[in-house]
Amino acid sequence: MVLLTVGAVLLIAGVVMIFVKRHHSGRAYCLKVSRPVTVAELEKMSAEIAQEIGGGNWREYVRLSGIVQCDRPLTSQLAQQPCVHYHMTVRREYEETVVRRDKDGNEERSTERGSETVASHEQSTPFMLKDDTGAIAVDPNQAEFETVTVLDEFRPESPGNFISFGGFSRALSPLGGNRRTLGYRYQEVIVPVERRVTVVATVSDAGNGLTLQRPTESGKQFIISLRNAEELTKSAERNAKASDLAMKYCLVGGAVLAIAGLVTGF
C-alpha cells in the first residue's frame, strides 16, 4: 500500500496548499485595494468628515509608509534590541538512539538528531508611524509582522540544566530515555525602531486621534512589513503562483497514486 500512502500524503499537502494560495492571493488583493495615503491626507479627510457628520465613525482601508518611532520601545528578550515587536524561540537540540527492526526481525540501532521548543514568546507595543507630512498612531494588536532576524545562535549544553541568554533564563529538566541534549538554539526576530515600514491597515478616528489598526472586514489583512508596497505585492503574487502550481501537482499526483495503489494493492 505504498502508492496509496504516498498518494494520501500528496492529497493532504494539496489541501494545505489551497489555504496557502488563498493567503498569498488575499495579501496581493489587499495591497492593491488599500489606498496609498500620507498622514496629512488622512488628517485632512478626518477633519472634513468630522465637520459634515461628526467624528468617531470613519473607517477606511489604507496603506502608508514611514519611520517607526516609539518613546518607550520594548527591549527584545534575547538580543536586547529596542523594538516595537519581537518573537523569540529557544529550541533544545538533542541526539537519540533509535531502535528499529528490519524485515527479518533483526535490530538496527541508529543515532538521530531532533529538537523541541522549550520557550517561545512574542510581544508588541503601540508606536507612531512618521512620514514626511506628520505622524499617526499604530495599534499593532493582531498584525501580521514581517521582521528582521537579530539572533540565530546555537550554544552547547550548559551544566546544571540552567540556560540564560540576554533577559531570558530558565531551569530545565533533563531529557529522559535515550535522548542526550546537545545544546540550545536561540532565535529572535524584531521590528526595530527608527526603521521604515509599510503598514496596511484600517484607519479609525474613534478615540483620541487617528489610529491605524486591525480591519474588522473579513478578508482584509493587517500588515506591518519592513518591505515597500511594490516588493510586498510582487512577493505575494509570486508566492500565490508557486502555491497554485504546487497545489495542482499535489492534488493530481496524489489522486493518480492513490488510485494506482487501490487498483494494484501496492
Radius of gyration: 25 Å
The largest sheet, given as strand count, sense and whether it forms a barrel, is: 5 strands, mixed, barrel
Please state the average pLDDT score: 86
> Beta-strand percentage?
35-45%
Oligomer: single chain
Termini separation (Å)? 4 Å
Strand arrangement in the largest pleated sheet: 2-6-7-14-13
**Helix count from the secondary structure assignment:** 3
Shape: flat
Give the strand tally.
Answer: 15
Q: Which range best describes the helical content: under 10%, 10-25%, 25-40%, 40-55%, 55-70% or over 70%?
A: 25-40%
* Sequence stretches where pLDDT stays below 50 over 5 or more residues: none
Order of helices and strands: HEHEEEEEEEEEEEEEEH
Class from helix and strand fractions:
alpha+beta
Fold and architecture overview:
By secondary structure, the protein is α+β, with helices and mostly antiparallel strands. Helices cover 31% and strands 42% of the residues. The protein contains three helices and 15 strands. The chain has helices at residues 2-33, 39-53, 229-264, and strands spanning 35-36, 59-69, 74-75, 82-101, 107-124, 127-131, 134-138, 144-145, 148-156, 162-165, 168-171, 179-192, 196-204, 211-213, 223-225. The strands form three sheets. The protein has a five-stranded mixed β-barrel. Strands 3, 4, 5, 9 and 12 form a five-stranded antiparallel β-sheet that branches. The protein has a two-stranded antiparallel ribbon with strand order 10-11. Strand 3 and strand 4 form a beta hairpin. Helix 1 packs antiparallel against helix 3. The radius of gyration is 25 Å and the shape is flat.
